[in-house]
Design a protein that fits this description.
Helix content: 40-55%
Number of strands: 4
Number of helices: 17
Structural class: alpha+beta
Strand order of the largest sheet: 1-3-2-4
Length: 365
């Protein structure tokens, strides 16, 4: 008996056994007859129809010869059906992890489009965002490892590790899509001198040149708003041996904080190892690495010899600060911020010299 091969394209997931049963009924063929012609047992044919036994490759070939339905179709039906069953089982297991999912700052993650696929349960959506198979894998990659290494350089663990991991992953996904040359240490050091002059520009003006100068050196710089449960100013993370990410939050939305955070993270790139992830939050940290990064940022923005001259006289008028900033070719808000941090002027004084930043994407404001 020969029959032309027939394509079956079901628009929903069915077991190959259901299709097989329909074919047998349509042709008036008994299970025993198919078993004899296929050189298989009647028990196996019954188990395939019941969805208990799979259609193996050799059985698919036999069905092609006997029924004229291509072996590849039987294999595809079997694969799709087993995958469907596996996903159902996984979905049932993941349903018990809703409490885990609620540890993340879901409201803002949804607002910013990080999660919120209506076709998926929230646990699956979060796992897809992080690129891990299950919650155990997430714990290993994003919690245990980052608590041991990434958070050791700051007191960021006082914030939510789930929110911090989500914010970092957001940055990683942006950075991974960008192609940059291999990291060039000397080129980056030179770029920092040019970047210093950008501090006098508005965000609209410095946005492109800042990213370009860093990109040429193998450094991806980006800024993303905080998520609930974080108190982050910035982070530095190597995405590979030759690519590094500087991520900033614009937490205080003023130029002095933004530029100090940038040069602070640049210090981590130049002075510290590639294995650690440096996460800098609102805590007053006292680690060696953080102290070195703070000193680097201070000196790069205002060289200590100029700082000594400025602070020799304790009269800090608006005019004097503007003149001093013009001399150094930096934003006057940076001078105000450092004077405030040093306790030389109150935090309520001269804030009008600081440039305030507003997110271009209104969702972030």
């Amino acid at each position: 008996m020969t029959t032309a091969a027939t394509e079956f394209e079901p628009d929903y997931v069915v077991s190959p056994g259901e299709i097989l049963e329909e074919i047998l009924e349509a042709r008036g063929m008994k299970k025993r007859q198919l078993a004899d012609r296929s050189n298989k047992s009647t028990k196996l044919i019954s188990q395939i129809i019941a969805g208990i036994a799979p259609v193996s490759p050799d059985t698919a070939i036999a069905f092609e010869r006997v029924l004229g339905v291509r072996a590849s179709l039987w294999n595809n039906l079997e694969s799709r059906y087993r995958l469907h069953l596996a996903k159902q089982d996984e979905r049932a297991r993941l349903a018990s992890n809703v409490a885990w999912a609620n540890r993340f700052p879901l409201a803002r993650m949804k607002k910013f489009g990080l999660v919120g696929d209506a076709r998926k349960p929230i646990v699956e959506d979060i796992l897809d965002f992080f690129g891990v198979a299950n919650t155990d894998a997430w714990e290993n990659v994003y919690l245990q490892e980052q608590q041991r290494v990434a958070f050791r350089a700051s007191q960021a663990f006082q914030s939510s590790p789930y929110a911090i991991a989500a914010w970092l992953r957001w940055g990683e996904k942006h950075a991974e899509s960008l192609d940059v040359p291999a990291f060039d240490r000397d080129r980056f050091k030179t770029a920092l001198n040019d970047i210093r002059a950008l501090t006098r520009m508005t965000p609209e003006e410095f946005h492109a040149p800042l990213k370009e100068l860093c990109s040429r050196s193998g450094v991806v710089v980006l800024w993303l708003p905080e998520l609930d449960g974080t108190r982050l100013s910035g982070a530095t993370k190597w995405l590979g041996p030759e690519k590094v990410m500087i991520q900033l939050s614009l937490r205080h939305r003023t130029d002095d904080h933004f530029w100090f955070s940038f040069f602070h993270e640049a210090a981590h790139v130049l002075l510290h190892g590639k294995k650690a992830v440096f996460i800098d939050d609102a805590s007053n940290t006292t680690t060696k690495e953080e102290d070195e990064a703070n000193l680097f940022a201070q000196n790069h923005l205002i060289p200590r010899s100029h700082w000594a001259r400025l602070t020799r006289t304790k009269a800090f008028s608006r005019e004097r600060i503007v003149s001093f900033a013009d001399e150094l070719n930096i934003a006057p808000g940076i001078v105000v911020g450092q004077l405030q941090h040093a306790g030389l002027i109150p935090y309520t004084h001269l804030n009008g010299l600081k440039q305030k930043f507003v997110w271009a994407d209104q969702r972030y404001n």
